[in-house]
Write a structure and sequence with these properties.
By secondary structure, the chain is mainly α. It contains 16 helices and 4 strands. It has 2 domains: about 150 residues, no CATH class; about 170 residues, no CATH class. The protein has a two-stranded antiparallel sheet with strand order 1-2. Strands 3-4 form a two-stranded antiparallel ribbon. Strand 1 and strand 2 form a beta hairpin. Helix 2 packs antiparallel against helix 5, helix 9 crosses helix 10 and helix 14 packs antiparallel against helix 16. The longest helix is centred in the middle third of the chain and has 41 residues. The protein is globular, with a radius of gyration of 23 Å. The N and C termini lie far apart (about 55 Å). The model has no long low-confidence stretch (mean pLDDT about 90).
Length: about 375
Amino acid sequence: MSILLILGYEVTDMEKLRAFLTRKNITFSAKRYFIDAMSAMAQGLFCTLLVGTILDTIGKQFGIAFLTNAFLTIKQGDTVLSYTIGGLCSLMVGPAMAVAIGYALQAPPLVLFSLITVGFATNVMGGAGGPLAVFFVALLAAEIGKAISKETKIDILVTPVVTILAGIGFAALVAHPIGMAASSIGKAIMWATELQPFFMGILVSVIIGVALTLPISSAAICASFGLTGLAGGAAVAGCCAQMVGFAVMSFRENRWGGLVAQGIGTSMLQMGNIVRNIRIWIPPTLASAVTGPIATCLFKLQMNGSPVSSGMGTCGFVGQIGVYTGWLNDIASGTKAAITGFDWLGLILISFVLPAVLTWLFAIPLRNWGWIKDGDLKLDL
């Protein structure tokens, strides 16, 4: 038998390893980790942190006691912690992200449930950069849990213990450094945007807008780096340009169904068409390069709500709700006197009017040159 060694394994051992990984559904791929898992993580963020923020805002604005009164009170020594329903939603962001990642990796039930503890601990240890720390730690813990699952006769004990210890052990090593790094990067982007609002407005708007249309999560990116302030406003502008831009540009092909599906759903629906003809991406991307600096330089549009809202655009109007929530937070903290008509004008123009008009205008010459043809933007709705 040949004794050819590959990375310390005999060929037969490598074949056994590949067979084991296949049997355990462990696939080392960029798609599974950075598309499937990150997109699922964004859904976890949405169902907890974002929904919690929306519920708190609705409760305060409409005086709904059920949403504003403390729903749960916990006393720890001399400290009393009170949570509204929205506050409880936000408290569960770490577990929700971890479970969502495990679900995307097709983890078995015992692994999935164990990730609740891993996600909570990691998010706390990661601090402001907790979401990014949860992403990496949950990936590792889920794959280790999948590897050990059903390998012993006491699986109901071994699998949760191994998953939790592996996850929290890894989190103890990397969660704080990852959280600090993510927070530092986010602060650097926000500082640069304050310093150079024109150029950074273009850069942030285009990059986050493109990320929204790609099969990755712009919301998770914004949450991971904590993008708020002017940078968050530029991110909102970029996302709106892509969503509203594609909705309007493709109206002749997709009519009202496409307008709604893309305008308040997601421009990711156009990804298949972009692969077939990447030039259809030019108009909304150019629109984002225009609306970004208008948002940062002219209207001083800031996202001071939840960072995840920065990467949502017009999806369920979450971006606009986030900006409005930020205005309320600023008023409550004394940094803003009141919401002005100019604020509302900027939000409406940046979110809806300019993306629609600019994308439509940019698309005209491309259609005349034959770069975009009838049917290139057609969706199967």
